[in-house]
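User: Run a structure prediction on this.
Assistant: Running it now.
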Amino acid sequence: MFRREKQAVDKLRQIKSPPPTVASVIETLVAADRALARTAIDEATAAGGDEEKLAEAEEEMQKASEGIQKGHPAQAIAHYGNAWKKAQQS
């Protein structure tokens, strides 16, 4: 799912002079993926998941935040996907 949303954001960002609704859609996708990753990490933490994997998940969350700050939402989504995966592995 994260891969498909990243692809969608990549395509949306290719629109020249996008209307404000495009930016809103991108923000919504990023926020949803952030919430999914955060929920997975929080649930894995509560269940006593592997601390090393959870630390890696948190690193991915930080990388996602940096991607957003740099204006790279697709990159952020990829990092949220990695964070979710690490949480699942924990």
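The CA atoms of residues 26 and 39 lie 20 Å apart.
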